[in-house]
């Protein structure tokens, strides 16, 4: 270069206009005038772009270099953010939101997912857009219940405002609700709201300044509401972003230095051209069919049918998405022309697809001077933003390639395809990568509120990927030995963070870890949503059961626990913190132990029907009692002659005895749980049968008290009397009821169960007529002394009925056996009264005297004023 020569950047060509102004520029000479950088910020109306030129001022010999050529062809443009409105409108989920023919999800659900994608729109922008929208439609700021609008969740307020004043009309033909018209009206209102939001979003992203960090040689964009660094693209990003430029051949006009950064190898040209072809293939679909295609392909990838071949899967996608209509003859000719550089559509083979999937995870070069497990100097928000952008681009590329593959396989004849194209294998490979990308994308698309202080006053929203996989990564990396600049490392750190875990071999285990974490943190809605991604494994089925329990779907939980039983009974316990130290020993020890654990889960939440079901299943898996007893007897016999047994035999017998005793205790524990559950749900016959099988006599006695009390409290005395209680249990039941009857009669309260009647019925049921007569006699004595006025009422037949019942009961004792021993009753009889013998003749005499008194009262022969304990007759 000579003195007086001018270096003029071709800004007219770069901006595609000759009306522009240079707002900012920065120059970095580099080290020893090598890799110098010139940054320009140019504005033309509302369009503002940044360009960078990297060049050497001196050659290797120290002489000046002619810069005219590189100044003319060596400029690189900074790609706009993926959060600009133009980029958002080309995103896959925006196309899904604008599609209106989705019967699975409503427009509101799709728009909410799009608008509330983490980091996409600020809270302030959404609130302001909602205010403007409500103001424009004259909507109130309070709810119908008087709740202030800002006290409701933002999602609910936006949904309510958009749906307000939209009527569900009826079809004139059959008077049925016109849901299609309603969905269209709703979609129009969402688009109106989005137009307001995009205006505010553009204002927030409006570029107001530029800064250059000379130490790190990194440029920053200053926007109205934030600042953002400019990072270096990865090699795969360069291929994807410049695919159309490479396909059209315009890349050849660029300087060798620029072309070398984009196209590192000869294979990169074919990769980039193939990306452009696949992208153009999917763009043949209109927005609504594109949305349908995305939904079907992702659903197929996440829930692959085990009985469906790859060919059948591709044909199903082809038919459901109507490829034949979307890609007509005109589109086919266009695709065929574009593929000329790739030897036509028939020249596409496995390598074209696999060359992309090998780099789809976009792993950057490894900087050996820097620890890979770092989050970068700019922290998690920057890494999350890069991760979201990378994963969304990867998802779109995989959808592009799947669309192209399905078209090739189903629309072209077999002889038109390359012999080196194996659609089935490529299909499986693409579906696997899409499944992995969807998992990662789901993690960066959902947030969890993290408490910053114990009091919960401050909190922040973290994506699930941050919460689960960023806790152990370093926040401030050491760059002393780094061989790359910060602009490259920002990309490297972020890509390593999102793709740091190779999930190809641990996909099932990783999904289990994620689902367990969601359940542990009680994120029920997120966990239910994650089930669409989770694979079908025994551990996942078990976790589904835990989730359904948490969500109150107990029957569904029981079914999923049963599905996982055969495998979970033999699998070692997972290291998930969801399992407590008390729960882990129940795994890998057979079905009985597993069912015991499941019954415990239901028992904790008092779902007794399911508790009983799994307790019974556990008991069915254990050996019967006679086998246990026989084994114990055999060991006892050997122990008596243990002096003749070798030491190993004695040790073996001792271990077996311990195992058998534990099994016995295990069965008693299960039977007690089964009894309590059956008793709680009113299955008293089955509960009593279980009670009889309990070996521990103390547990048996306490259980009998429990079932007696439950039967009485639930007014199931008739069922109680049907129970075959006999032997020692009958004596115990009698003593329990007698104690309750004594307390009840002594209290004198008319409310509560009539225990004396229950005891009378129980003793009569068991043939104990004298005992039944005894409790009836005590009741009679209490009646006679309880209320004199009630006793003197001739219309009150209570006493007469008790006398008759008592006489009949004593008569049932047999001839000459009609007697009972009556103990003195405190507060009824005199303190010095002794125990006396009462015969049936005594009762009959008292009964006749009672009838005589009633007859006199009926004839009016009684004193106006009584003078004693007994009624004085005139």
UniProtKB/TrEMBL annotation:
Protein location: Nucleus
GO molecular function, one term: structural constituent of nuclear pore
Keyword line: Nucleus, Transport
Pfam families xref list: Beta-prop_Nup120_160, HEAT_Nup120, NUP120_helical
Cellular component per GO, a single term: nuclear pore
Residue intervals of the Nucleoporin Nup120 helical domain: 308-430
Domain Nucleoporin Nup120/160 beta-propeller: 3-237
Occurrences of domain Nucleoporin nup120-like HEAT repeat (ranges): 514-711
Name this polypeptide is given: Uncharacterized protein
Upper taxonomic lineage: Eukaryota, Fungi, Dikarya, Ascomycota, Pezizomycotina
């Amino acid at each position: 270069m000579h003195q007086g020569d001018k270096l003029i950047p071709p800004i007219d060509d770069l901006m595609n206009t000759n009306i522009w102004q240079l707002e900012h520029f920065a120059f970095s000479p580099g080290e020893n005038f090598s890799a110098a950088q010139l940054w320009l910020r140019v504005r033309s109306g509302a369009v503002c772009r940044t360009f960078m030129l990297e060049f050497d001022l001196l050659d290797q010999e120290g002489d000046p270099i002619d810069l005219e050529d590189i100044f003319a062809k060596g400029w690189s443009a900074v790609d706009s953010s993926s959060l600009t409105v133009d980029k958002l409108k080309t995103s896959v989920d925006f196309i899904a939101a604008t599609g209106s023919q989705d019967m699975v999800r409503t427009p509101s659900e799709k728009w909410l997912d799009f608008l509330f994608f983490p980091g996409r729109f600020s809270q302030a922008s959404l609130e302001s857009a909602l205010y403007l929208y409500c103001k424009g439609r004259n909507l109130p700021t309070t709810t119908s219940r008087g709740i202030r609008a800002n006290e409701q969740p933002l999602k609910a307020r936006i949904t309510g405002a958009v749906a307000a004043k939209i009527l569900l009309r009826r079809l004139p033909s059959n008077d049925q609700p016109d849901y299609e018209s309603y969905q269209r009206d709703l979609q129009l209102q969402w688009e109106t709201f989005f137009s307001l939001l995009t205006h505010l979003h553009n204002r927030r992203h409006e570029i107001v300044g530029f800064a250059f960090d000379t130490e790190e040689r990194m440029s920053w964009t200053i926007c109205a509401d934030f600042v953002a660094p400019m990072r270096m693209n990865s090699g795969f990003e360069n291929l994807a972003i410049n695919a159309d430029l490479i396909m059209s051949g315009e890349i050849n006009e660029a300087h060798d230095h620029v072309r070398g950064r984009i196209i590192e190898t000869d294979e990169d040209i074919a990769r980039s051209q193939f990306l452009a072809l696949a992208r153009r293939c999917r763009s043949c679909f209109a927005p609504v069919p594109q949305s349908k295609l995305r939904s079907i392909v992702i659903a197929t990838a996440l829930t692959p049918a085990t009985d469906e071949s790859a060919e059948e899967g591709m044909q199903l996608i082809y038919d459901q998405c109507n490829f034949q209509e979307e890609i007509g003859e005109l589109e086919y000719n266009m695709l065929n022309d574009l593929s000329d550089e790739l030897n036509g559509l028939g020249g596409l083979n496995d390598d074209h697809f696999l060359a992309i999937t090998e780099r789809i995870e976009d792993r950057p070069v490894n900087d050996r001077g820097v620890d890979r497990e770092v989050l970068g100097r700019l922290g998690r928000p920057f890494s999350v933003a890069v991760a979201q952008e990378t994963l969304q681009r990867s998802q779109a590329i995989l959808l592009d390639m799947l669309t192209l593959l399905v078209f090739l396989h189903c629309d072209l004849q077999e002889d038109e395809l390359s012999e080196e194209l194996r659609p089935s294998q490529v299909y499986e490979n693409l579906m696997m990568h899409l499944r992995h990308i969807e998992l990662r994308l789901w993690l960066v698309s959902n947030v969890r509120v993290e408490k910053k202080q114990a009091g919960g006053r401050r909190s922040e929203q973290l994506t699930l990927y941050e919460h689960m996989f960023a806790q152990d990564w370093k926040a401030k990396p050491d760059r002393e030995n780094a061989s790359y600049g910060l602009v490259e490392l920002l990309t490297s750190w972020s890509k390593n963070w999102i793709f740091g875990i190779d999930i190809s071999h641990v996909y099932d285990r990783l999904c289990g870890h994620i689902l367990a974490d969601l359940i542990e943190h009680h994120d029920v809605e997120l966990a239910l949503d994650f089930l669409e991604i989770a694979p079908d494994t025994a551990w996942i089925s078990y976790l589904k059961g835990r989730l359904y329990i948490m969500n109150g779907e107990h029957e569904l939980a029981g079914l999923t626990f049963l599905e996982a039983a055969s495998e979970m009974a033999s699998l070692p316990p997972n290291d998930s913190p969801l399992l407590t130290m008390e729960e882990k020993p129940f795994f890998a020890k057979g079905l009985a132990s597993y069912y015991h654990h499941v019954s415990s889960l239901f028992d904790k939440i008092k779902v007794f029907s399911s508790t009983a079901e799994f307790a019974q299943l556990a008991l069915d898996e254990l050996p019967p009692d006679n086998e246990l007893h026989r084994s114990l007897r055999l060991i006892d016999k050997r122990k008596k002659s243990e002096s003749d047994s070798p030491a190993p035999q004695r040790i073996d017998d001792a271990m077996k005895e311990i195992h058998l005793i534990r099994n016995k205790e295990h069965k008693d524990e299960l039977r007690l749980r089964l009894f309590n559950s059956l008793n709680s749900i009113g299955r008293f016959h089955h509960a009593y049968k279980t009670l009889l099988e309990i070996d521990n006599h103390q547990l048996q006695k306490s259980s009998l008290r429990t079932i007696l009390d439950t039967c009485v409290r639930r007014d199931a005395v008739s069922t109680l009397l049907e129970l075959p209680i006999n032997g020692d249990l009958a004596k115990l039941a009698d003593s329990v009821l007698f104690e309750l009857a004594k307390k009840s009669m002594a209290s004198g309260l008319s409310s509560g169960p009539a225990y004396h009647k229950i005891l009378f019925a129980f003793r009569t049921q068991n043939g104990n007529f004298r005992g039944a007569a005894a409790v009836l006699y005590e009741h009679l004595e209490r009646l006679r002394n309880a209320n004199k006025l009630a006793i003197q009422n001739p219309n009150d037949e209570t006493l007469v009925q008790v006398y008759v019942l008592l006489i009949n009961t004593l008569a049932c004792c047999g001839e000459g056996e009609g007697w009972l021993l009556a103990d003195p009753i405190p507060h009824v009889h005199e303190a010095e009264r002794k125990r006396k013998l009462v015969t049936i003749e005594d009762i009959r005499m008292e009964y006749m005297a009672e009838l005589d008194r009633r007859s006199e009262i009926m004839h009016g022969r009684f004193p106006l004023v009584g003078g004693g304990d007994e009624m004085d007759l005139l």
